[in-house]
Amino acid sequence: MNPKFIINYIKETYLMSKNNNITTWYINETLGKPKNLEEEDMGTTKYIPDPNPVENQQESIIYIYNTHQTEEYYINLLMEHDIVPSVMTSSYILREKLNARGLKSMVETTNIMDMLKNQNLNYASSYQVSRKLMEEAYNKNPTLTYFIDLHRDSIPYESSTLVLNKMTYAKALFVIGTDNPNYLQNKAFAEQISNQMNSHLEGISRGILEKGGENSNGIYNQDFNDKTILIEIGSSYNTIMEVTNTIEILAQSISEVIKGDS
């Protein structure tokens, strides 16, 4: 993918959108504002509104959400505009790529940080809130079948990045909870996507990380159904361009796996 694509995408989507509310929000809330270190444990990145709401498809089959909406990526790529991209940015890009492949997808845009604060809940309760949003989305859209929670890791750049043919990619990692009845089914689904990604670009997926037992979540809302997975794309040191390069491969692989099941 041409590196200029993502730069133009960010500029056109976030800075030159016809939706004046979004443009105004970025000017007022994102540009040049310092981080509040006192809120570091609750996330410092601003909530990112949907840059293209019409992309949220009716009768969607894929639900993309971010339990930790404020996980951010490296910002130097966009220092010209001082934009802080986050995992919500990656969700909007993944939705676009999936919709373009004929897989109707939607992104959860409810502000989870606001819900935590309004309900006097701490950051550790984020999965409790995102679970409620999943249930509400499914009740409104019973066609939803696949649930993807996008995160990013915090490992060093050398561990989170793949360089191949003068292109850089943010490696993906699939996290599967072992303490829920859908463990094996969700693991199998994640393995299919991970293997498909590596078949296109060896090493772009770091594989499956199983978590469970004492002092671990072990569920990650994956008891919701047998097609609920958590994907970490890159780390805090990766740029949104590197993330987008990976999302191209991820979307292609998801499409191949889902269409192969149909």
Describe the protein in words.
With 262 residues, the protein is of the alpha/beta class. The protein has one domain: 3-Layer(aba) Sandwich (Aminopeptidase). It has eight helices and eight strands. A six-stranded mixed β-sheet has the order 2-1-3-8-6-7, sandwiched between helices. Helix 7 links the parallel strand 6 and strand 7. Helix 7 crosses helix 8. The longest helix has 22 residues, at 240-261. The radius of gyration is 17 Å and the shape is globular. The two termini are 29 Å apart.
Please specify the SSE layout and strand pairing.
Elements: H1 3-15, H2 20-30, E1 62-65, H3 87-100, E2 105-107, H4 112-118, H5 126-140, E3 146-153, H6 157-160, E4 161-164, E5 167-170, E6 172-177, H7 183-200, E7 205-211, E8 228-235, H8 240-261
Helix pairs in contact: 3-8, 7-8
Largest sheet, spatial ordering of strands: 2-1-3-8-6-7
**Count of discrete alpha- or pi-helical segments spanning 4 or more residues:** 8
- How many strands? 8
Terminal residue distance:
29 Å
CATH architecture: 3-Layer(aba) Sandwich
What is the subunit arrangement here? single chain
Name of the CATH superfamily: Zn-dependent exopeptidases
